[in-house]
Here is the input.
Amino acid sequence: MNLPNKLTLSRIFLIPIFIILMSVPFPWGSWQIGETALPISHFISALLFIIAAGTDWVDGYYARKYNLVTNLGKFLDPLADKLLVSAAFIILVEMGVAPAWVVILIISREFAVTGLRLVASGEGIVLAAGNMGKIKTATQMVAIAVLLLHNFPFSYIGFPFGEIMLYISLFFTILSGIDYFIKNWHVMRDSK
Here is the structure.
């Protein structure tokens, strides 16, 4: 197994640890940040999320640079991304930080695009992620990280940066989904 696939697997293995740290009320105390308390377990969990999200960029970079793209990687990488982002957004809903309707729209877009990719794959067509998809991913990762950190460091000044980023990520999620389907509609139209 090559390095990019190992990094992708590490991302998948970090997800249950991330979920446990966010869900179990560990008695590790908390830091007071502005008006909000940030549990230390949430801080550690947010760091794990950031590390896991970073491995997505690293594994893609190494796979392309050293021609280490494999079928296993093509399967695992998007799966790891969807699992990580979905888990984080669902936890944010449970925490009462993200509205469920926003998360439903974001996750629905991911299912729709994955379905289109499956149809394309059945036709022997590989659909690459576009720039809009990369912007979508970046805004989602920033929104999730800041919200997991209870809006730190912006909570000191009372600025709802995490919430604003959540809606920006929703905008780019919808826009990139529409863009993806418009550019690749021929796959659905021409499929047998």
Summary: The two ends are 35 Å apart (CA to CA).
